[in-house]
């Protein structure tokens, strides 16, 4: 029997979503193309240039360079790789990376794969990196400092301007991980772009809030010369060098990213950001009224202290939910998450509370 993909009607904790119809159609048309071989597939290579140009518009980068990656993990690994290679050229024998505890787990993978030291610094009570902790640990061995623009657990944005200044004061590069937040932050007053802060490299993923088909991540660099740190010879291809991590890549992801951005930037994304934030604010209010401690959303992500029995009961009801590292329920208000979907979720939660009256006040 042919398997069917899971629907999104009860998915509340994913940072991916249903592709926009134009993105889905573009992905299907370019399934058999490989932007990793631009000499053979020039059309999709041109589309990749268009994708990077549009990502540059979103992130306010005047002369954008980069490529469409498989996702945020690859882009983050590549940012670390750029910093490591640059540090080695500057005779730094043991380059290190500093990131907040709110940073994505992909940086742990990067440190392991690339054999660099990873220093994890604490966050404050609002789940943003503590600048004093970064200053205390930054030194001449620091190759890269990471700032988060839309954390995966609480949707928080680090103080990116001061963080970038600390990085450059010690001669390090500054990387901003805006994999999820990059398609929401343009419609806030947050300073996060290349025009706002001294960022050198950035992760920004069209296949998250950008509504492109998977896989479609993005790596942007302020200076195209930074990509030279990644280049390797490719003598049997029509092009002679390659800066990407993978060789063969998905033309489907490239084409769908372009289609989604051309369709939705900026008005469509602005409207979606407003809907998502309104849904997050509504859900936070409902959870608080049920008696749960809620981490108030600054971006469309809600965390609340739902105890384990209640959480497991919601999972048993078919809700696809997850927890933060410290155990809170985590709900991401992606484009597929409607108000009626959230109303159904809150109704189920309230019904569970009626069966277990102390659920909202009992610790795990």
From TrEMBL:
Positions modified as N6-(pyridoxal phosphate)lysine?
A: 208
User: Its Enzyme Commission number?
Assistant: 4.1.1.11
- Enzyme class, top EC level, equals lyase
Question: Could you tell me the keywords of this UniProt record?
Answer: Decarboxylase, Lyase, Pyridoxal phosphate
Keyword Lyase assigned: yes
Family annotation (Pfam families): Pyridoxal_deC (PF00282)
Select a single GO molecular function from the record's annotations and give it: aspartate 1-decarboxylase activity
Q: What does this protein do?
A: Catalyzes the decarboxylation of L-aspartate to produce beta-alanine.
Family, as annotated: Belongs to the group II decarboxylase family. Sphingosine-1-phosphate lyase subfamily. Belongs to the group II decarboxylase family. MfnA subfamily.
This one is known as Probable L-aspartate decarboxylase
């Amino acid at each position: 029997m042919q398997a069917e993909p899971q629907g999104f009607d009860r998915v509340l904790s994913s940072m991916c979503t249903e592709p926009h119809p134009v993105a889905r159609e573009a992905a299907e048309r370019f399934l058999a193309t490989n932007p990793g071989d631009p000499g053979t597939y020039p059309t999709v290579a041109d589309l990749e240039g268009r994708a990077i140009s549009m990502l540059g518009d979103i992130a306010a980068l005047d002369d954008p360079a980069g490529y469409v990656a498989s996702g945020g993990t690859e882009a983050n690994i590549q940012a670390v790789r750029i910093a490591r290679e640059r540090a080695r050229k500057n005779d730094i024998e043991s380059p290190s990376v500093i990131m907040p505890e709110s940073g994505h787990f992909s940086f742990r993978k990067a440190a392991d794969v690339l054999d660099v030291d990873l220093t994890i610094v604490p966050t404050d009570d609002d789940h943003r990196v503590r600048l004093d902790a970064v200053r205390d640990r930054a030194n001449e061995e620091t190759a890269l400092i990471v700032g988060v623009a839309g954390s995966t657990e609480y949707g928080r944005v680090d103080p990116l301007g001061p963080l970038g200044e600390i990085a450059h004061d010690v001669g390090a590069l500054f990387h901003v991980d805006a994999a999820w937040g990059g398609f929401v932050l343009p419609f806030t007053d947050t300073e996060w772009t290349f025009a706002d802060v001294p960022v050198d490299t950035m992760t920004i993923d069209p296949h998250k809030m950008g509504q492109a088909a998977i896989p479609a991540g993005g790596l942007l660099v302020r200076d195209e010369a930074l990509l030279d740190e990644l280049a390797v010879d490719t003598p049997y291809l029509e092009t002679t060098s390659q800066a990407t991590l993978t060789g063969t890549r998905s033309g489907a992801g490239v084409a769908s990213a372009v289609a989604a951005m051309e369709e939705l930037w900026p008005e469509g994304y602005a409207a979606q950001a407003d809907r998502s934030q309104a849904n997050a604010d509504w859900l936070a209010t409902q959870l608080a009224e049920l008696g749960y401690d809620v981490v108030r959303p600054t971006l469309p992500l809600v965390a609340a202290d739902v105890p384990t029995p209640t959480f497991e009961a919601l999972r048993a009801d078919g809700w696809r939910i997850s927890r933060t590292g410290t155990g809170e329920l985590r709900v991401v208000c992606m484009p597929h998450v409607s108000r009626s979907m959230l109303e159904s979720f809150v109704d189920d939660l309230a019904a569970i509370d009626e069966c277990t009256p102390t659920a909202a006040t009992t610790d795990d």
